[in-house]
Design goal:
It contains no helices and 11 strands. The protein is an all-beta fold.
Length: 118
């Protein structure tokens, strides 16, 4: 059983910062990639950032230069440092992992709310 547990969401003012964490636990043999997605009210879930096992990163254009994704392989944890937050960053943020357990699978966290006030 694999679990992804997010933390670090909350309320921030525009221009402020928040850091999200996602810890993976369970029968994990290796990671292919981990990432963050978000879903705002009335909108589809969208990619925010991903990081591969080799450390390659990919960002949505809307967050480039403001957000940084990183990972700690020893802790099976991925982070999202969010700076210069904007009200349009308000959403539920979900952690995602493409990994090898007993079989290869894609797993999601339960989501953490980020609210940015103007």
């Amino acid at each position: 059983q694999v679990q992804l547990v997010e933390s670090g969401g909350g309320l921030a003012q525009a221009g402020g910062s928040l850091t999200l964490s996602c810890a993976a636990s369970g029968n994990i043999f290796s990671f292919n990639a981990m990432g963050w997605y978000r879903q705002a009210p009335g909108k589809q879930r969208e990619l925010v950032a991903t990081i591969t096992s080799g450390g390659s990163t990919n960002y949505a254009d809307s967050v480039k230069g403001r957000f940084t994704i990183s990972r700690d392989n020893a802790k099976n944890t991925v982070y999202l440092q969010m700076n210069s937050l904007k009200p349009e960053d308000t959403a539920v943020y979900y952690c995602n992992a493409d990994l090898m357990s007993w079989v290869r699978g894609e797993y999601w966290g339960q989501g953490t709310q980020v609210t940015v006030s103007s």
